[in-house]
Amino acid sequence: MSDIVVQALTKIVGKENILLSLEERMCYAYDGTFRSFLPDYVVRPACTKEVQEILLLAGEHGIPVYPRGAGTGLSGGSVPINGGIAMDLIRMNKILELDKANLIVVVEPGVVTAELHKFVESHGLYYPPDPASLKSCTIGGNVAEGAGGPRAIKYGVTRDYVMGLEVVTPAGNVIKTGGRTVKNVSGYDLTRLMVGSEGTLGVFTKIILKLIPKPEAKKTILSIYPKLDGAADTVPEIINRGIIPASLEIMDDVAINCVETHLHLGLPKDAEAILLIEVDGDREAVERQGQVVAEICKSNGAMEVKVAKDDKEAEELWVARRAVSAAILQLNPTKVSEDATVPRTAIPEMIRRLRKISQKYNLPLPVYGHAGDGNLHPNIVCNKRDPEEMERVEQAVREIFEATIELGGTLTGEHGIGLMKAPFVNLQFSPEEIQYFREIKKVFDPQNILNPGKIFGGEEHEGLFSAAKRD
Prior knowledge:
By secondary structure, the chain is α+β, with helices and mostly antiparallel strands. Among the domains are: 3-88, Uridine Diphospho-n-acetylenolpyruvylglucosamine Reductase, domain 2; 95-213, Uridine Diphospho-n-acetylenolpyruvylglucosamine Reductase, domain 3, CATH 3.30.465; 217-330, Alpha-Beta Plaits. The protein has 15 helices and 18 strands. It has helices spanning 3-13, 22-26, 48-61, 113-121, 139-145, 152-155, 190-194, 228-240, 253-263, 283-299, 311-327, 347-361, 387-406, 431-444, 464-468, and strands at residues 18-19, 41-43, 65-68, 85-88, 95-99, 104-107, 125-126, 162-168, 174-178, 203-210, 212-213, 217-225, 247-252, 273-281, 304-307, 334-337, 367-370, 375-382. The strands form four sheets. It has a seven-stranded antiparallel β-sheet, with helices on both faces. Strands 5-6-10-8-9 form a five-stranded antiparallel β-sheet. The protein has a four-stranded mixed β-sheet with strand order 1-2-4-3. Helix 8 runs antiparallel to helix 10. It starts with a helix and ends with a helix. The model has no long low-confidence stretch (mean pLDDT 94).
């Protein structure tokens, strides 16, 4: 820790916004994964100018900088693997402007996603992206990771709502991408390049988001299946009938049993799958679609179909799905949460392969996720302090990704590559493609100070699981 750097950072953000004690820095060593790396400094800028000055200082001294929102990421995207500066953007949390006429909202990166939802819906508008951690995650983190959520099947993901950005580059330059118009094909699409760049190309300081009118009504259906194939067959049939649900979620038998043991909701432990389906839109259309969806579920062998009568019942039906992530930790203290994504029609085969992988390596592997868009969340529940088990986990993860790519899928649908998936990028991308990605990084960050060691600069780092054996 350099006294010169401490003095300079203190001058930029003020003494109260630089954290130096071991206890304070430990809080910024983690994200939502099981890996941790201690930063040398933690700073909390409050405006674009402070972000700019921090990056200029970092460039002058060759210090790596790791931008951070709420630390809910599931790919190790914000962990400071080389020490340096953890840049906490949570103070930049203002909703700057609402333009109802043009369906636009302008926010700072530290705005919590659920707070944005609440704000725009109070004005009769709607911001659809809804990652599971929406009550704590921030818009800046959502944009950096290209976050998704259950509503993606109908409404798309974060990138589909980002119209423009103010970005501070690693060199300390402030650039603006995109804008406020629906049509904009001037120059290269730097906005799309920045969305999902995982903090490696720049730090977002203002974000222009597209809004839509709030749907008039919604209907929620919970369908329980004795056989997984019945649930899998239901998904394409709903869409083939001309209905695009707002959400279409799946839980397998392992996830069901974990949730039932955890919360005692009355879920049948002999069920192989649950689908949670939500339709929204015009009130009359929603009523009709809800009936059709319930009929499709029954025709595909559902042993129980529950249709919520009001918002309160709808929330009760969502309890099981939202509890999965916490509930499966009953099985073991460490969770490796993946988001392998395949074409929707490949879901049954992908789940079958996941079951074989689970049996082959003798690892609990509950599966849940967004069946409507093929984004599954296979979770390996393990103990990072067991070296032999972690060897099996590493092999299992590689086979999960190999199966995903073989079925026409992608390594990540919404969590990002970060640190955790970096060793596997060569499964999806050719050497030539990876080189293009690295050249883009060099253009924006020739010193490699911004979130180094992630995505296409992370393959040379030690495998995340082998390193975990020593934690």
